[in-house]
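During the practical work, I worked with a single protein chain and the tokens that describe its fold, as given directly below.
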Amino acid sequence: MSELHTARLLLRGLQASDFSAWSEVRSRCADWLTKWEPAPVPGGPNAERDPSAFAARCNARDRERQLGTGFAFSLWHDGIFCGEINVNNVVRGAFQSGHVGYWVDERWAGQGFVPEGLVAVMSYAFDRAGLHRLQISIIPRNKASLRVPQKLGIRSEGTAKGYLQIAGVWEDHDRFAITSEEWEQRRDELWALGNLNP
């Protein structure tokens, strides 16, 4: 399992032993988070309440990493779990692209952890995983999430109408993207914007 380190964060895959920390944050921040997320499958396993469902989630993410189809990282600050940044739906072949999703514990919002961690994840995706493009899609009214690509100056690609079903509603999403060529040109700048040392 890959570990990434930044000035303030450890990024690593979640493990079954992280259930208590992850579940506590997800439960406490439910109102803060779930309005921006797809609705759970009715009758499906609940990883927030069931340690075995959480372990299955961790195993699925490990398998994605092994196959090169996804890269999931949890964020830890001074040993405290504070969120996740995931590269999902990775398509290889001629596309070599993935979709970035992130969330942070409400207690740590506004501290710059997500931009800091995202730069490290971009470095991993482009320099180690061999991706060519990353996309971030955000509901326009989610101002907190929009601040991340705006802070990093990630290129806007406009608004996709009815792009994803979130909390049971088909929502428009503002799309941002960065390619490996842009990463090469902006690497040092992005590390600096993320408050990191390369």
